[in-house]
């Protein structure tokens, strides 16, 4: 994330892409969205933001399912 804040977009993109390959997370998708946004790639940014929302939605569903199984 430091590369993103320092406007080293190519390095940021390489690191974030590697992180997505290893283990996708909501935070990484948001960071990729920010990166694409800063580079003027609105459609790509929107796709990453949607993935981040989907990640959150799936996490919320797992929490609800776990609560129901405990009850």
Description:
By secondary structure, this protein is mainly alpha-helical. It has four helices and no strands. The N and C termini lie far apart (40 Å).
Task: Summarize this structure as a short list of keywords or feature phrases.
single chain; 71 residues; mainly alpha
SSE-based structural type: mainly alpha
**Cα end-to-end separation:** 40 Å
Helix content: over 70%
Number of helices: 4
Shape: globular
Short note summarizing the structure:
The chain has 71 residues and is mainly α.
List the helices and strands and how they pair.
Elements (H helix, E strand, L loop, with lengths): L1 H4 L3 H14 L3 H13 L3 H29 L1
Helix pairs in contact: 2-3, 3-4
């Amino acid at each position: 994330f430091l590369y993103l804040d320092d406007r080293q977009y190519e390095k940021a993109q390489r690191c974030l892409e590697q992180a997505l390959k290893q283990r996708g997370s909501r935070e990484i998708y948001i960071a990729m969205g920010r990166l694409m946004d800063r580079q003027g790639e609105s459609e790509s940014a929107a796709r990453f933001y949607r993935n981040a929302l989907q990640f959150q939605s799936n996490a919320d569903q797992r929490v609800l399912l776990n609560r129901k199984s405990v009850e």
